[in-house]
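Archive entry. Fields below.
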Amino acid sequence: MASAPTAYVVSQGEELLTGLTLDTNAWFLCRSLTEMGLVVRGVITAGDRLEEIEGALLRATTGADVVVCTGGLGPTTDDLTSEAAARAFGRPLVHDDEAMAQVQARYDAVGRAMAPSNRKQASMPTGAALLVNRQGTAPGFSIDVGQGRLYCLPGVPSEMKSMFAEIVSPDVRAFVAIDPPLRHTFRVMGQGESQLQGLLGDVPERFPGVTLGFRAQMPENHVKLVAEPATPGWDDAVALVRERLGRDCFTEDPTEELAAVIGRLLLARGHTLATAESCTGGWVAHLIVSVPGSSAWFERGWVTYSNRSKREEVGVPAAVLEEHGAVSQETARAMADGARAAAGADWGVSVTGVAGPDGGSPDKPVGTVWVAIAGPTGTRDRQLQLGARDRTMNRRFSTWLALEMLRRQLLRTPVPEAPQPGPETVP
Amino acid sequence: MASAPTAYVVSQGEELLTGLTLDTNAWFLCRSLTEMGLVVRGVITAGDRLEEIEGALLRATTGADVVVCTGGLGPTTDDLTSEAAARAFGRPLVHDDEAMAQVQARYDAVGRAMAPSNRKQASMPTGAALLVNRQGTAPGFSIDVGQGRLYCLPGVPSEMKSMFAEIVSPDVRAFVAIDPPLRHTFRVMGQGESQLQGLLGDVPERFPGVTLGFRAQMPENHVKLVAEPATPGWDDAVALVRERLGRDCFTEDPTEELAAVIGRLLLARGHTLATAESCTGGWVAHLIVSVPGSSAWFERGWVTYSNRSKREEVGVPAAVLEEHGAVSQETARAMADGARAAAGADWGVSVTGVAGPDGGSPDKPVGTVWVAIAGPTGTRDRQLQLGARDRTMNRRFSTWLALEMLRRQLLRTPVPEAPQPGPETVP
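PREDICTED_STRUCTURE:
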């Protein structure tokens, strides 16, 4: 890809250098620019010192076709990106009426008075083009430097991402000639990276020019194939990986989450779902409700955190809790059955476990988790031993593995010829 | 901060620039170096091109006392850090017998034959000091450059972290005099960045040497004060900011989450909590359960997503749903009251709203959310108009603002002289 246009990313913010914030903006930009077909040459992170930001902008714009800088466009005195760009490229700051009007409009929209400090946000380097921020007050700008173009976007991730998608991406496509590479992503549950390497490691040898990459996003894994445009055998390579992964691949859409896949499977069957969670504490339901339109298939959920709530809400018998404990196969099964019955849903999912850091015992150490799935053809359960990971990791793994277990059960459940109507739809 | 030693971080790896991997190594190093009292001046990420790595090492070692580089020490042809360092600092590569013995020992330990390519891992720049890697095959090295020191560590996070803790951290402490800067963080809800600038903008003028920084982590904001060690007036500056922020600051511990603060307030009062969520779909409960030990104060939660579940689980009268709708003041209040009563808890929190992207109407557009808090002295509610943000942002804001509203009510509730015992404790 010798001819591919190049890019550089600059992240600005003291909180990145003190490690308070993980720089997911640079990650997003590297991924997005790469997917567009640019070759990212580097990332520089600068703090809140003017000369550092200026140096980073100068370095990044040397030889790159596209530079995207995030952060430092806010109203406060430690927001210095505009000034740094003005100094780096000899373009003094000027007040931009259109930018000012945009900042004012954002305040009007939320019914608040604009603070005097916001005036600063309308200052831009001479000759800069305004980039409208529809979600926040900080406008962005772009300037042409040499034969490249620098885009300065705000650091708030949601604002940055939507401005990148709506403005920067189409502008870059118009500005540089890109012949994007071939890419295919498989999202996988149930196989670790070294297992996937063993399963798929021969693919690049069999299809010269096709590269194989992995990304662990625990407990998911993403398998990525990449090749230059029009590489021979591309379709066969994709088909081979698809065949080898089988049901372990839950989607080939890189943006589709596991909960959304479950929604598709439920909708196709006209089925509904209820959840009863203990250690995951609502995380399963949260992922479900994050899917737009989930009211068509998600009925209700319980966070039965206390033993009393397990009895009262989903009917776990007191004797079961007494004899086997809250973290047990019997309790998990009773929770799933109870959730399904109480909600009048087709499926019930339950999770109960010892998330840690405390609460473990010799026979039920931290990381002991039970998942159960109650469905039209019965109830299945599975014990997880998640080891000595921390509370968040234990809860995360439990959440994802409960959803995955539900997906496997749904795949075994036939799709009716005429699906049932869903339940009442609420916003 | 002229007297604090400075650091620079270099991350090496093509997978970082293509966005395949999120760079948590740089994050770890920034955090660790900052905690040790160094000021991190920047991070550079370089790919697998020799000249880029060489340039990054040269830039990073210019003026920094400590440089930590990760990645590029493996056996394959795209592992180029040793060669880049050799070229950057004019120290030709030499074979190191001790390094070779270490690589060999690792292979012996796992009972595998060493591949010829591993011989490369024993090549180091002339005059480098070997850094032993007890967990993997790639040895690290350090070299003195000018008045600073460069540490090159492998990119595998677990190996890098343990080598940093065991070798780099003590070596740095012996090598540079560290007098850590003064830092204080206030985590704030209820004030935007420009409001905070207006409220606190005069602090750096009143206390020369004290710098003021902000970080928007919507809907939270973090206010940070930083100064050189022993800056006069530091305590007064902290006290002034504390006084001005008042109850908008929910914690001065940078690592304490809002849900954990609520847990503290509930525990002090011997009170318990229940939740009933619609559009937030369990996110409130999920944040609560993410706090270790929350079983002492969190009783249970409902995700009453369907209208039927709002009636059946938390007793919202059918007439209320019919007359006012699921997203209404009346429904929110009935949900909070019902959750409190059904759980036998002291507090009930409810959220119901139109998260989007669909489901809005002229009188209840997307972003219309009602929150209610039922407590020992009555029930309060609040309507939010979150504007045209996306589903995730609407749900995120609703979740945080519900917790914040609960916190405000708790602050108005006196702490008893002898707190009640909490409920049964489950793992």
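CURATOR_NOTE: Chain A touches chain B through 108 residues (CB under 8 Å).
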